[in-house]
Structures are given as structure tokens and as C-alpha cells.
Amino acid sequence: MFKEFKEFVMRGNVVDMAVGIVIGAAFGTIVKSLVADVIMPPIGLLLGNVDFSNIFTVVKEGATAAPYATLADAQAAGAVTVNWGLFILTIISFLIIALAIFLLVKQINRLKREEEAPPAEPTTKECPYCLNEIPIEATRCGFCTSQLTGASAS
Fold first, then answer.
1. Shortest CA distance to 35 belongs to which of 53, 16, 17, 62?
2. Residue range(s) occupied by CATH 1.10.1200.120 in the chain
3. Is the previous residue joined to 67 through a cis bond, with omega within 30 degrees of 0?
4. What is the pTM of this model?
5. Is the dihedral of CA 59, 65, 69, 72 positive or negative?
6. Which of 36, 41, 68, 99 places its Cα 20 to 30 Å from the Cα of 26?
7. What distance, in Å, lies between the first and last C-alpha atoms of the chain?
8. Could you tell me the fold of the domain covering 2-50+83-117?
9. 18-64 pLDDT per residue, tens
């Protein structure tokens, strides 16, 4: 059983998948920081000093009464909240990750198309009488000397 597990884990696609997951998690962290620390502050500033990480709705008050100045204050008080701002940040992060993956897959597909050269034009054909290979422009077979017509030549 251990041998089968080792064979499963050491297959190329499993190792590639593991590397992809680790790199994807790191990329997700970078994008999350990009959205929260670089993109959203100017957007919040343009919208009148809105801090998206503190946009929330209190569903049930906690130990201390509302209003709560920040989401951290509401959570510290034990309030039940719907965190709209964090949800918006998550959607923007997802869209950026989806765009990056789309661009990556598009480039990979473009490179694959470039690698796949079209097949070369055939230079020989088969004699319909003796089935030997002869030049494609031949009008008479060099093996059986049959006259090749346009309709009977393949």
C-alpha cells in the first residue's frame, strides 16, 4: 500500500498540481494585498473617505450597544455582522485573479499554437496499380511503368 501511495504521489501531474497550489496560494496573498492596500484606498478616497474593510451591517448587537465605529469594535463586542465591505474586497480580488489566469492561459494557448506547425505538403503519392511510392508530380510509375491519369492517381 505504501508503494502504491508513493507511486501516486511521485507521478508528474500530482507534483505539478502541488506546486501550482502553493504558487496559487502565494499569488492569492499578493492579489489580496494589492486590492486591500493599493486599489481600494484610492477608490475609497474618491467615494468620500470610505474604508471598505469597515462597511458592515449589525444583525444583532453584542455585549455593548451599537453603534460600533469599526468592524473590529463590533466583533470585540460580540456583535453579529454582515461584512459587506470585506465581501466587495473579496469580489475584486477574485476578478483580478480571474483576469490574471485568463491572460496566462491565453498566452499558453498562443504559444502552443505557434509550436504546432502545420503538416508539410506531401511530396509522394502511391501508384494505384503497384502501390509503390512515386513522386507526386509523376505521370508514369517508375516501378510498373503504368501511365497515371488524374482520376486514377491518388
1. 53
2. 2-50+83-117
3. yes
4. 0.57
5. negative
6. 41
7. 56
8. 1.10.1200
9. 888 999 899 888 988 888 888 888 888 888 888 888 889 999 988 88
